[in-house]
Amino acid sequence: MTTNSIKLLYIEDDTEIGELVTEQLRSKSYEVKWLKSGEEALREAEGCSLVVLDVMLPGLDGFTIGQRLKKANPDLPILMLSARTSIDDKLQGLEFADDYVTKPFHPDELSARIEVLLRRGGRRSSEPTKVKHLLVYEAENRIVHADTGEELALGGKQFHIFMFLFRHLGQILTKEQIYEAVWGESYLDGDKTLMVHIRHLREKIEKDPASPEVVETIRGLGYRVRA
Amino acid sequence: MNKRNDSQAPVRKSRLLPGSLQGQYLIIVLAAFLFIPVIIPLASLTYTIVQWSSKSDMESGAKYGGTSGLLSDWHAHAANMEGKSDAAIDEALIELKRRYPEASMFWVDANGATRSQLPPQLDIPAQWTPEEAIRFMKASIGKDPYTVIAFLGKENAGSSFMTIRMPREAISTGNPNGSGTPYYIAFVFVMFSVFVAMSLLFFRHIRRRLLRLQSAMARQDEHGIPEPVAIKRWDEIGALEYSFNGMVAQLRDSRQRQSEEEQLRKSLVANLSHDLRTPLTIMQGHLYQLREEPLSPKGQQSVSVMQGKAEGLGELIDNLLAYTLMTSGRYKLTLEAVDIVRLARESAASWYPLWEREGLEVDVRLPHEQLIWQGDRAGLQRMLDNLFQNVVRHARDGGYIGLALEKRHGRPCLVFSDKGRGLNSESSATGAGVGLAIVDYLADSMGLVRETASSEEGTRVYLYEKTKAKDERGFF
Fold it and tell me: Is the Cβ pair B378, A175 closer than 8 Å?
């Protein structure tokens, strides 16, 4: 988490929550611009990498602002933050929002979701991310062994599998999800193919492929790459 | 009371109106009753009139005024021969022959000698004896040609006579008897047809209006309420349409009221949710900050207990409000084919980090095969979340969470198991109720069943389809 100078736009009308969240995000080295209403959102969103948006706002509500922001800049990730009941708002919000967090939320959960969104949008700086004994230069599509400085040469599918897991750092992905994301076709009998590719991937990146550390197997569920 | 009378007024009025269906029907039935006693004599009368008029038509229409006309004419001509010489009689007969060209005629003088046959006739004797005369008469009666014999002189009293033999076809147009029968049949038939046609028209009219009303009832606007119909007549169907319109108006009213109430309830729940969650969020934020501060172990423990309680409270609020919305019909389910095995695995994957943090042993035994349930994706997700949440909140002490696909009552069944002290123990009494109520409500709406088997060793929750799944894809 050595990132800095990533600008976030945060729109929240409640002063107490606003102060707390702003403080927590700043402690994670984000630059936070906090607005109490959405009127200036479009202009203020310039140069921001992500928008955290409350639903209940005076004047224009969060849905309207979110839709406008998305229309003006479809690549800008939007994270909805709402105190309304999830079952009611979640679907409406997710029509344009990239993620949705309901209040009350754990501050760690919020920053984790922001991390995921930023990484998915490719808005990471060229700083490498350390994954166990590996350094991942996402912008340059490079994976380097941290101890030896040696660059790892991965096959096309192996690299795709690794990057898909890496972009969902900390999340468990099922075999179906991985296969469909990498091969682009429905997972029916792709099981063997995927297992073979993961075995080859581990042979190249793990210190000990027999007890893998980077690509973890979560029994019965899928695989995970953790920082 | 007054209102009631108002709405009933058109019904009563219509019974008295001549245009009422009852009145119209009575007229038709009455016509049917009158049919036999009135129509049959009428038909007979028609028959008689036709018969009579056709007879007189024939008489006057025939060339020489029929048999009776010819008879009297011939006698008159014979009377005119009074005092005429034989030559003059011959002359007159030639004249008469010109007048009746189809007829053959002759005359016999006082001495019984046949004179001037026009044209000459073979069966006429030249000299008449009484026997000849009687034979001739006998041969002529009722035969064709029609024969008239008239004595000459005043009052036809002379001893000489003249005879005309006219072919019957020249004096009659055929047999007039029974000429009225087709008219009789036609009349009866027409009257029957008129009655049948009237009945048919009457019922067709009723039927058409009923069908129109029926289609108006079937047609619905975007709220599922039919449009009011235009009332054209104030009879019984008109009254029906009037009542129908009244019902439509009532439906619209209640629909309007319902949507207003729904809106009110929705905004109330949303506001309540907001007002309850905002302070909780702030509390959590501060608790999080407090944890970063240097605290004694006891202080740290207090903070973590408070954090746990705040989280539980947040979940409880969410479940409570969701339950309120769902049971008031605010949450619309869209059923589609969902691969429940895949959904369960992905849901478990997203819960895994929390289970890991809580130190639970995770045991997932799901096959890599599809199992399709007809369900609402978000609703199923919610059910899984609530069941997983229950384990974390109430069976954490068991240190175990299991998720498997097994067979129950011959159906594929998702099994959620834990090794907590069981639902009946004291710790699980709080909060679990609402979460499970939501699971049950959603399960019921999607044709699923939840069963729970709880003991000291742990709890097993079974979730399966009520009816046997059609598409099992060879599972087991």
Answer: no
Please say whether the beta carbons of B318 and A90 come within 8 A. Answer: no
* Residue from A91, A119, A90 nearest A103 by CA: A90
Q: Does B369 touch chain A (CB under 8 A)?
A: no
More confident residue, B415 or B426: B415
Q: Do the Cβ atoms of A87 and B365 come within 8 Å?
A: no
Q: For B333-465, which CATH class? A: alpha beta
Q: Do B284 and A218 touch (CB under 8 A)?
A: no
Contact present, B25 and B239 (Cβ < 8 Å): no
What CA–CA distance (Å, rounded) separates B245 from B247?
A: 5
- Three-class SS state of B70: helix
- For residue B362, give how far its alpha carbon lies from the nearest alpha carbon of chain A (Å): 8
CA distance B209 to B68: 65
Token pair 């905002």 in the structure block, residue: B278
Give CA–CA dist A171/A225, Å, rounded. Answer: 7
Q: Are B394 and B434 in contact (CB under 8 A)?
A: no
User: Which domains does chain A carry?
Assistant: 6-120 (3.40.50.2300), 129-225 (1.10.10.10)
CA dihedral B237, B240, B245, B251 (to 10 degrees): -150
Q: Which residue has the higher pLDDT, B1 or B65?
A: B65
The helix (H) or strand (E) run that includes residue B400 is strand B400-408
Cβ-defined contact of A87 to B349 (cutoff 8 Å): no
Dmax over CA atoms of chain A, in Å, equals 59
Strand partners, A218: A222
Paired with B147 in beta bridges are B165
Residues of B in contact with A105 (CB under 8 A): 281, 284
A188: number of Cβ within 10 Å: 11
Kind and range of the H or E run holding B295: none
In 3D, which of B197, B325, B211 has the Cα closest to residue B270?
B325
**Residue B411 Cα, gap to closest chain A Cα (Å):** 22
Rounded Cα–Cα distance for residues B198 and B78 (Å):
64
Given a cut of 60, is residue B364 above it in pLDDT? yes
pLDDT tens for A16-68 read 889 989 998 998 888 999 998 888 888 888 888 899 988 878 888 888 888 88
- Please name which of A107, A116, A100, A20 lies closest in space to residue A54, comparing C-alpha atoms: A100
Residue B377's Cβ-count burial label (10 Å; 0-12, 13-18, 19+) is: middle
* DSSP-derived pairing of the beta strands B336-339 and B361-365: unpaired
Fold exhibited by the domain B66-170: Beta-Lactamase (3.30.450)
Q: Which residue of B has its CA nearest to A85?
A: B318
* Tokens of residue B254, six digits: 């209640």
Q: What SS3 class is residue B361?
A: strand
Interface A-B, measured as beta-carbon pairs within 8 A, has a size of 113
Give this prediction's pTM: 0.58
Residue pair A63/A48 in contact by the 8 Å Cβ criterion: no
d(CA B105, CA B90): 11
- In contact, B370 and B344? CB cutoff 8 Å: no
**CA-to-CA separations, B429 to B104, B393, B422, B436, B451, in angstroms, rounded:** 136, 11, 10, 11, 17
Helix (H) or strand (E) holding B335: none
Strands A6-11 and A50-54: parallel
The token duo for B387 is: 């069941």
Backbone phi and psi for residue B462, each to the nearest 5 degrees, phi listed first: -105, 140
